[in-house]
Specification:
3-stranded antiparallel β-sheet, globular, mainly alpha, 244 residues, 11 helices, binds manganese (II) ion
Length: 244
């Protein structure tokens, strides 16, 4: 079967589902978007949309700016999402213009670029990935396959949280703590600055921003308190959907 035949059948299937049920169609689109990116970011397609000048634009936060309170304040979200992330997007647009990366999606730029373009594009991805999996009053623990994998790899969900917390507390300076997956193996992967698992052949499930700008307005120097708050607002349903 040729590639064009497969593509045609896929389009036809999608078209049929459009006519049958809009809910089913939405789910199919959702799966297609996620699988086509292979980066774990559920909003990959939206994040990679561009304006008429081929520039990435700041996508709307998937919840209200005050909805993470009291764990993360509206003020922090306004600065963190609205200013820091916006600046990383702006810098990425400037640095990619006129280069071989100009038409590449964020997750591909991360894999191949270096220097300032890597740093800024990785920070764009990292922040969307972080904010996508935050949510107030969601489930307090993962379920299903993710729950089983966490038990298998770390002993229990509580043991995983403790190890992840330790990694976040111990990380010197600015950086990110990631949970990454390779088949049935999960690993806690702390990384400095803008470092990203995709660059290192790893597949991300969850990240925690431990740059000071993520918490300084709320808990000042107390990173441990920020991490405690972080566990209250992880959106486990999102993390479960990222599992391969
Ligand atoms: Mn940040």
């Amino acid at each position: 079967m040729s590639i064009s035949t497969v593509f045609f059948i896929t389009l036809e299937t999608l078209n049929l589902s459009l006519r049958i049920n809009t809910n089913i169609n939405y789910q199919i689109l959702f799966i297609m978007n996620t699988e086509s990116c292979h980066c774990g970011l559920l909003s990959c397609k939206e994040v990679n949309t561009r304006d008429k000048d081929n520039k990435f634009t700041l996508q709307p936060l998937p919840y209200a700016e005050n909805s993470l309170e009291p764990y993360i304040s509206e003020k922090t979200v306004k600065f963190h999402y609205g200013k820091h992330l916006a600046a990383y997007i702006d810098n990425t647009n400037k640095l990619k213009a006129g280069t071989q990366f100009d038409d590449q999606p964020i997750h591909e730029i991360i894999k191949k670029a270096s220097g300032g373009l890597f740093n800024n594009a990785a920070q764009v991805f990292n922040h969307y990935f972080y904010f996508e999996a935050l949510h107030h009053s969601g489930a307090q623990a993962p379920r299903g396959k993710l729950s089983n994998l966490l038990e298998k790899n770390f002993g229990s969900f509580e043991d995983f949280k403790e190890k992840f917390t330790q990694a976040g507390t111990a990380l010197f300076g600015s950086g990110w703590v990631w949970l990454v997956q390779e088949d049935d193996k999960l690993e806690i992967w702390p990384a400095p600055n803008a470092e990203n698992p995709l660059k290192n052949g790893k597949y991300p499930l969850l990240t925690m921003d431990v740059w000071e700008h993520a918490y300084y307005l709320d808990t000042q120097n107390a990173r441990a308190k920020y991490i405690e708050n972080f566990w209250q607002i992880v959106n486990w349903e999102v993390v479960e959907k990222r599992v391969k």
